[in-house]
Amino acid sequence: MQFSSRRKKYNTNSQTELYLHPLQFYGQPPLENISLSEFEAFAVDRLKLLKTIENLGVSYVKLSEQYTKKLESESKALNFLYRPDKRRKDHISHFILRLAYCQTEDLRRWFIQQEVDLFRYRFNELHPKQKLEFLHRNNLQYDTISVEEKKALQDKLVNSSYAVSGITVEDQDFYKVPFQDALDLVRTRKVYLKAGYVFIPHQDIVTIVLNDFRTRLSKALALTARSLPAVHSDERLQPLLNHLSHAYVGQDYSIQKNVGKISLEQIDSLSGKSFPLCMRQLHQSLRENHHLRHGGRMQYGLFLKGIGLSLEQALQFWRSEFIRGKVDADKFDKAYAYSIRHMFGKEGKRTDYTPYSCMKVILSNPPSQGDHHGCPFRHSEPELLKQKLQFYKVSPSGISQVGDASFSLNHPNQYFIESQKVLGGGKDLKREMDIPQRSQENSATRGPSAAPEAAANASQELAEVTEELDSFFQDA
Ligand code: SF4
Questions:
Q1: 374: Cβ below 6 Å to ligand 1?
Q2: Same domain for 140 and 105?
Q3: Do 319 and 422 fall into the same domain?
Q4: Are 95 and 35 a contacting pair, CB within 8 Å?
Q5: Residues 226-271: tens digit of each pLDDT
Q6: What are the backbone angles phi and psi of residue 90, rounded to the nearest 5°?
């Protein structure tokens, strides 16, 4: 891509060719000149779309009717349509976000996940003929088998393919695919395998295509990351790209400006006043059992790091609690201290781990028996959640609101900061951690707030992003 202050019409044959089909693997970067304002507008719109996908993915079953309807209407609202004249925007905006989201592993993971979900939705919306065309255009030379072959293999196909239960084989297209292209389906024994080929029902072909898309995108992001030094040397783009990436996965709370501003003695009282429910629960379990399992140590340890505990304080905090239980100091130093240093980027790959967002808490590593990590609003039985909230003296009306709420995107450390602001305490913290974030004072007692509110927050945030980006370009 080239950037100029004025947009020029510039279409090569291959570019036109790319837009013939509604869907693409984004194998070729756009070659035209675009204006900075278009660059910015496209990027913000795609982020809006990806953010919607993220929100919908935790509120609805993917590809369910509601999910599809909402995604369709958001795509329309943002002008990401299937019409050929709109495909340019889709193409360019994807590549802009590659630049913004290739910068760290977390950003790459987030971007790949949303793009794969968008791709899944779009692929699913294609007419069967368009699907086949897409496969062929992208050298996935899979063909459907003939009616005769289907009849001959009927029993085998029905018995081996979950997807066809309830649907007659005659109504179903089957693709013949080399087995090495469908290892996931072979591994999970979901397909009929014969002479090096698997026979994949129409619905399952998406698995293959998605795997391919994910792999290509992951490689492409790694390659894009290598070109970052060149991009960063462009002073017009660097702040914009950084802003774009932060605007949508949110602040990562890894900035350690406030290290040492909290004393260990303050933690008990802070946990009652300013910790979200998940952290309060972890703190209480730690105090009661003098132990937390790995998932809990990671979730709580990174949260404490984010609110300002230094490595030395963290070691002291965990050691003093663990040795009150069954772990002696020697065992602590051998078995646990390493992982705490690891969390702070002092061991292993020396990754400076960031505190978990609500999304990460909710979607990864669900708690099992004996675990105390996770999000109580998502992982606790409603009755148990009610009891916990009563225990923490949440009013009955507050509790009933929690029961009605669905999911919104928050961050436990953001909750902590906002709570400190509301309480007017932690003035030092407030000054040090003065990060522009939307207000969500009540989220922990209210639970994950309603999805419409999430959308409103996202729009508000977008408006802010756009304003800031506008002023950036005016200043530049
Ligand atoms: S919504 Fe977020 S902050 Fe609140 S309890 Fe769940 S994970 Fe913790």
A1: no
A2: no
A3: yes
A4: no
A5: 988 887 778 788 778 877 876 655 566 765 667 878 899 999 999 9
A6: -60, -45
What's the rounded Cα separation, in Å, for the pair 461 and 52?
13
- Residue 252 three-state SS: coil
Asked if 95 and 154 sit in the same domain, the reply is no
- Cα separation, 392 vs 398, whole angstroms: 11
How many structural domains compose the chain?
Answer: 3
**C-beta 402 within 6 A of ligand 1:** no
Is 323 strand, coil or helix? coil
Task: Flag whether 165 is in a domain.
Answer: yes
For the residues of 271-319, what is the DSSP string, one character each?
A: HHHH--HHHHHHHHHHHHHS---HHHHHHHHHHHHHHT--HHHHHHHHH
Token digits for 213? 């898309």
Which residue is listed with tokens 């995107």? 409
CA of 447 to the centre of ligand 1 (A): 7
Q: What is the pLDDT of residues 311-354, one digit of tens each?
A: 999 999 999 999 999 999 999 999 999 999 999 999 888 877 88
Please say whether the beta carbons of 251 and 437 come within 8 A. yes
SS3 state at 3: strand
Mutate to test the pocket of ligand 1, among 298, 299, 358 (most ligand atoms within 8 A of CB): 358
Place of tokens 């007017």: 424
Q: What phi and psi values does residue 193 have, to the nearest 5 degrees?
A: -115, 130
> Which residue's CA is the closest to the ligand 1 atom numbered 2?
358
The number of angstroms, rounded, from the C-alpha of 260 to the middle of its chain's C-alpha atoms is: 30
State yes or no: pLDDT of 475 exceeds 50.
Answer: no
